[in-house]
Amino acid sequence: LRSSNPNEALVIAVTTRAIFNLEEEHQLFLTKGKEEYVKYQQLNEDKPLEQGTAFAFIQAVQFVNEKLLERNPEEKGLFDVIILSNNSPESGMRIVNSAKQHGLEISKFCFVSDEDSTQYLKSHNVKLFLSADRMDVCNALQRGVSAALIFQQEVQTPSTQLRVVFDGDAVLFSNETDRVFREKGLSGALEYERAMEAVPMGEGPLKAFAMHLGKMRKKFSQENSPIRTYLVTARSGRDMGIRAIKTLREWGLAIDEAFFMDGAPKGPLLSQIQPHIFFDDGLHNIQGAQDIGIPSALVPSQGRGREDAVC
Questions:
Q1: What GO terms are given for molecular function (predicted)?
Q2: 114 is catalytic
Q3: CATH assignment of 162-298?
């Protein structure tokens, strides 16, 4: 985006299937092959693609940039969005045209054909990677980049204020307590938390992105901020909330609102918040959010974890 400095910018990379609805085209690629897919994309290169799951999130990111530049026209610490694509350059014209026709201010496009696109994340200083391909997301997480899996879904159009919801364990925080819970049950997890209350939790896969977002959030006053962040966790506030709050304090991460749900469904609360993106490691939470039109992103566990949510 304009005026951003790669060293100061908060760089977000999205794949074409995360930001646009390419499900039909993807099926064509899988069933008829690359040649037919390229031919189809070239024939339709002036026909804009429909919005995908991450589209509203990227739009809201642009709104934050506008507010940052209103505050300071010389601001260099903006969001910078890159579209990363496994398309070849010859079939990529439709992607560029669609971004322009939808009014997205994206100037960086990487068309890498069939290469592993995640190898370019570090060189572009990417702080968050959103993809509709599980292998992409797992590769990015293994490279130490905050990443999440996007599914094509119906999305409610939320407010212009960028609203981001993070789950706690295995997303913002490490999955240490989840592991204890799986091995020793709830009473074992509660005992572990009481013993570790004064010790900050380890970093989860989305911690780095949350910290960068928090830094950007601090540029605005509480009342006029175009960014609002939320922690919505299955932890109980009474037994497990203290350690979570102490960890955030230790990190210097200010979250606007925190909800300790004690295992209750997250859907009704998410419906009220109406976030642009909801990060969670539990497929049941993701599916519940999708059912009510909340743009959702699965953070797969690395190694042992919940079924269908593992790299």
A1: 5'-nucleotidase activity; magnesium ion binding; nucleotide binding
A2: no
A3: 3.40.50.1000
Q: pLDDT band at 1, cuts 50/70/90?
A: very low
What are the DSSP calls for the chain, one per residue? Answer: -TT--TTTSEEEEEEHHHHEE-HHHHHHHHHH-HHHHHHHHHHTTTSPPEE-TTHHHHHHHHHHHHHHHHH-TT----EEEEEEESS-GGG-HHHHHHHHHTT----EEEE-TTS-GGGGTGGGTEEEEEES-HHHHHHHHHTT--EEEE---------SSEEEEE-TBTTTB-SHHHHHHHHHHHHHHHHHHHHTTTSPPPBPTTHHHHHHHHHHHTTS-STT-SEEEEEEESS-HHHHHHHHHHHHHHHT---SEEEE-TT--SHHHHHHH--SEEEES-HHHHHHHHHTT--EEE-PBSSS-STTSB-
Spacing of C-alpha 48 from chain mean position = 24
The answer to whether domain 10-150 and domain 162-298 are alike in fold is: yes
Catalytic residue among 167, 169, 280, 281: 167
Q: What topology is assigned to 10-150 in CATH?
A: Rossmann fold (3.40.50)
Is residue 279 within 8 A of residue 288, CB to CB? The reply is: no
Record the tokens describing residue 126, joined without a space. 């990417």
Condensed to tens digits (0 to 9), the pLDDT of residues 13-70 reads 999 999 999 989 889 988 998 889 889 999 999 999 999 999 999 999 999 999 999 9
